[in-house]
Amino acid sequence: MTRRILVIDDEERIRVVVQVCLEELAGWNVVLAESGEEGIAYAKAEEIDAILLDVSMPDLDGVEVFRLLQSDATTCNIPVILLTAKTSRHDRASFIAVGVTGVLAKPFDALTLPHQIAEILGWAPIP
């Protein structure tokens, strides 16, 4: 089974790097969204196994997007990993407290990103 990952990030270069890493290194299918609203629409319409969500975005930030996903019966069970430059112990604790599955720091190591995601989600290791 090929995993489908939704990447929601307002920065195009981040979306592209993440897409290439996850598709080339892990063999996952990646769906890209450039805004929280677009991401929520994809999450409702597509079969998504996990969401990688930027915290700092205009309009809807990642935490608000997460809350909206959690309030919808069609998306509330999709695991969400936040991708953020806010990596202090307090920031991480506050993100985990809202119920996200995990937090990954920006900048990230492109070569280890799929491994980190698989570990957080409890998926089989990437060969």
UniProtKB/TrEMBL annotation:
GO biological process: phosphorelay signal transduction system
InterPro entries: Bact_response_regulator (IPR050595), CheY-like_superfamily (IPR011006), Sig_transdc_resp-reg_receiver (IPR001789)
Matches recorded under SMART domains: REC (SM00448)
Keyword terms of this UniProt record: Phosphoprotein
Ranges where the Response regulatory domain occurs: 4-121
Residues recorded with modification 4-aspartylphosphate: 54
Segments forming a coiled coil: none
PANTHER family: CHEY SUBFAMILY, STRESS RESPONSE REGULATOR PROTEIN 1
Name listed for the protein in its UniProt record: Response regulator
Organism of provenance: Thermocoleostomius sinensis A174
